[in-house]
Design a protein that fits this description.
flat; 3 helices
């Protein structure tokens, strides 16, 4: 016979988090600075002559672009936190995109 958890352990139907908006607050300054540092590291790696290191830098930068866009979307919804840090991150993103498209 299969084990069935007692009802006291089951989640109530109203406990669903769908449609519930979290009140996490603005994006932390450490998130902005971490993204900026990751962009700088990626740009440094792409400047290296070794093919594997260069490829690692390109991979890092390609993965950072959608993450950064997502953070900007969250910042629009929840609050930017630090405008200066967000601006520096936007500059790093713009520099990276210009490097690859121009």
């Amino acid at each position: 016979m299969a084990h069935v958890a007692p009802t006291s352990h089951r989640r109530a139907p109203r406990a669903s988090h769908r449609g519930h908006r979290s009140a996490d607050g603005p994006v932390q300054i450490t998130s902005w600075l971490g993204l900026t540092v990751a962009f700088v590291v990626g740009l440094i790696l792409t400047a290296q002559a070794h093919v594997g290191v260069h490829a690692a830098g390109v991979t890092l930068l390609v993965m950072l672009v959608p993450v950064t866009v997502g953070v900007f979307v969250a910042a629009v919804r929840q609050g930017v936190g630090s405008w200066k840090a967000a601006f520096v991150t936007a500059a790093a993103l713009a520099f990276t995109l210009l490097k690859f498209f121009l």
